[in-house]
């Protein structure tokens, strides 16, 4: 399904895309700045148990998912999936009986 966008719509879509990528980079920056602090706190307070690994892994997975979404590399929920789902919902609505 090919959609023809006007110049203004294309510009708006590009702005949204840039904002999404910027938010990903901000998220990554916070991750890179905060985790060394978490590691230092862990090593100073309880060096026998390295709990910072859980923080790194959990937050790291969130970073990866955010990056996949920001750069439109989603193997599961991509544009084709969205289009299929929209068509499926519209077909269900069209086939729904009216009770008037």
Q: What does the model show?
A:
With about 100 residues, this protein is mainly α. The protein has a domain at about 5-75. About 75% of the residues lie in helices and about 0% in strands. It is built from three helices and no strands. The chain has helices at about 5-45, 50-70, 80-95. Helix 1 runs antiparallel to helix 2 (about 50-70). It is elongated, with a radius of gyration of 22 Å. The two termini are about 35 Å apart. The mean pLDDT is about 90.
Supply the helix-strand structural class. Answer: mainly alpha
Molecular shape:
elongated
**Span between N and C termini?**
34 Å
Helix content percent band = over 70%
Number of helices: 3
Helix and strand pattern: HHH
Query: What can be said about the biggest beta sheet?
Result: none
Beta strands, count? 0
> Could you report the average pLDDT, rounded to the nearest whole number?
88
The value of Rg in angstroms is 22 Å
List low-pLDDT spans.
none
Please state roughly what percent of the residues sit in beta strands, choosing from under 5%, 5-15%, 15-25%, 25-35%, 35-45% or over 45%.
under 5%
Q: Which features characterize this protein?
A:
100 residues; mainly alpha; 3 helices; elongated
Secondary-structure map with pairings?
Blueprint: H1 7-45, H2 52-70, H3 79-95
Helix pairs in contact: 1-2
